[in-house]
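Anyone? Bumping this.
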Amino acid sequence: MSKENKLTPRSQDFNDWYNAVVQMADLADYGPVRGTMIVKPYGWAIWENIQKALDTRFKATGVENAGFPMFIPLSFLQKEAKHIEGFAPELAIVTHGGGEELAEPLVVRPTSETIIGHAYSNWVQSYRDLPILINLWNSVVRWEMRTKLFLRTLEFYWQEGHTAHATSEEADARTRMMLDVYTDFAVNEAAVPVIPGEKSEMERFAGAVQTTTIEAMMGDGKALQAATSHNLGQNFAKAFEIQYLDENNQQQFAWTTSWGLSTRFIGAIIMTHGDDNGLVLPPNIAPIQVVVVPIYKTDDDKAALIAAANKLAQELKDAEITVKVDARENLSPGFKFNDWEMRGVPVRLELGPRDLENNAVVAARRDIPGRDGKQSLSLDGLAPNIQALLSEIQANLLAKATQFREDNTHAAASMEEFEQAVKTGFARVWWAGDTEDEIAIKEKTKATLRCFPHQQPGGNGICFYTGKPADRIAIFARAY
Amino acid sequence: MSKENKLTPRSQDFNDWYNAVVQMADLADYGPVRGTMIVKPYGWAIWENIQKALDTRFKATGVENAGFPMFIPLSFLQKEAKHIEGFAPELAIVTHGGGEELAEPLVVRPTSETIIGHAYSNWVQSYRDLPILINLWNSVVRWEMRTKLFLRTLEFYWQEGHTAHATSEEADARTRMMLDVYTDFAVNEAAVPVIPGEKSEMERFAGAVQTTTIEAMMGDGKALQAATSHNLGQNFAKAFEIQYLDENNQQQFAWTTSWGLSTRFIGAIIMTHGDDNGLVLPPNIAPIQVVVVPIYKTDDDKAALIAAANKLAQELKDAEITVKVDARENLSPGFKFNDWEMRGVPVRLELGPRDLENNAVVAARRDIPGRDGKQSLSLDGLAPNIQALLSEIQANLLAKATQFREDNTHAAASMEEFEQAVKTGFARVWWAGDTEDEIAIKEKTKATLRCFPHQQPGGNGICFYTGKPADRIAIFARAY
């Protein structure tokens, strides 16, 4: 944020721009404890829209919500060897409760696989008790050292789904199904194009046999893991003894999955669509889709224009468009325009005395700056025109972001090409390397293997790094 | 719970009955850490309906949701003297994070007045920044020694609203407004009749200048504080320096309020409406309003009846009734009837071959047991009849609970009458005593001053305890 409280241009310093947008669009702030986050009402309203869109989709697949405790005995985390190895450095520990030292320290959940495993082992006896399909909306704590609002904070909000199944195939299908849900949400609600794919062994969730992911390209060409869906195999079922009697009366271990999307996704929206004027929100996620700014000089005009603005707003509300009339006193129209642009409202309606005389209103699109994004619309039959405009903006944001990603994704057949590609975006390469190779590449270029896209070209190629024959394409990038 | 997995009769042991209903209706269970609660999907679905009903009402008064961190520096709690005095014995303390001992211990929020006070002091500069009207949906931790699911657990779910205002009058009006919201919700959605009123000084929230409450009578005659709304005066504004420049450019302290309703309310619903067959849910809060049980013996019948049940269910869904068809295999209709009665579903539709022949279905009301609650309804135009039936059940539950409360509320002019009254219900008395008198009464009778009802008879009387002239009626009862 520059001294004059003006937004740093995105191209000048992407990081500075991001931090300033989060503050100036009034989305979030740091809490008093280092690295914790206060999500302010406007940021939370975006999160509520994300929640609604996901929750409806989850429930359509048979998932139910529940509430699980935030406190987990430390010993639970130690039951799955890789899980504790992955999470130990990030734990917050409660040692005292009710004025006394606790016999066993408690962990504030970094994720709930262990406490879920414990509960499911009590709940599951027979194959008839399966599948269990549960989701939690909560917050989790991971003691991050370097924090950034929405992207990496000590506590963050998310949903974590946890399912248990009778067969490996069912668990596999559920892992894929939930990734499809995330993909559908990201593309069709948030206008964030994503690449669904599988993580390499190195990038897997601690305790999973397979981690799938949706990867998005941010405005600076870096990748952001926007959601993950894990096939946990029988790892947690064995650690927590989730066992059932099958139809032949044989004792079997269950197969489990887990999947999550967090407030980090708000960071993805900001960094995918935002511009030099601030936040740009896709209409399907925007808490306010249309803002109406009445413009007047005299008191007579004021009364007439506010009345007209309210009438118009009511018509839009009746058509299920979320709308706000900005009748704040002592603020110029120009200030208001900037303010709502900063907050990313998709459509601004400017209503002045001359517009009203002409039974019209000026509609300004947030996604197309300046005059090109402005048009005069008749006040008659306004709602369907605004609905069409919102759809157009939604589609345009997705198209622009997709184009940007395509423009900044490059095939690479050599290390030189690879290094060039990951400087500005994604490298798309044939890959036959192993974990050691990934580590070496990361050290040299800061790029990591984001995923093996589910959508593969087929055929074979030569691994750009090892020179070995490869049957899979991988995406590498620097990442958040 | 008796050994045969049958519900203890409510009249025999209310406490045992309550615990069994929570388990057998599949609402909740204890977590692995002593006193923590797992809210199972069916219990959580009730909570979601409560959330929806409240959230809509909050937003209609201009309140917005936000997210605040769970970790609060211990020093924050110490800034308001009475607040720390009230909460110190119940705190959970985080001493280690990221593998290191923390310089300052953190508290897991028992309530958020302090961290809110800190944030508001940053956000408020001028009178134009007021009012701030924010609500949080979260969970809080209080280290309770004796726990009971929904009523008193180490961690519980709730909403906590926090507002800041320019004047004492506004804060007072908001305190009252939110109590009105709770009253409206309790009476019209949960069919729980409540007495809105003011707490005595002794029963006030730690740090409040006034605590208002809605008090409900449970099925055993005991009182339950179902929600509270606090006027915090300038106590927290002064402790956290929430100051603003008024219109005359004078620095002023703000006036704040807070108000909350928790998953404890689910306990209130259970103990208000439940009976010897289990849970009884008011239709407006029930996750499933209607269950359809197809009854068949032959495979031919089965196909036809399940098809008819699904068709009927779709008609009800189209009329925005939540409905479930219970087509589970290998379970008798009798088992299913008991199961859904235990879960408190307001209406059961029994659909057998003969019903289908007659183009009819048998509707059984949960609120009226046995034959008296059964009627045959035509399949033609079923939805409006079911809607009417649900409304009737909703009204009946409220009427029954109100009648029960009236029957078990007694005026008392002497200590003998008082002791008799609080054995079975509420004592309604003229009161002019002080905190010492309240303590003495509590020691002698276990009854506490629940509230001074907002609705007073007017006039004067003689305090039953002190013999002094009194100008207010108070409600005393034993309480959860």
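Late reply, but here is one note on the structure posted above: Residues 409-477 of chain A form a domain with the Translation Initiation Factor IF3 fold (CATH 3.30.110.30).
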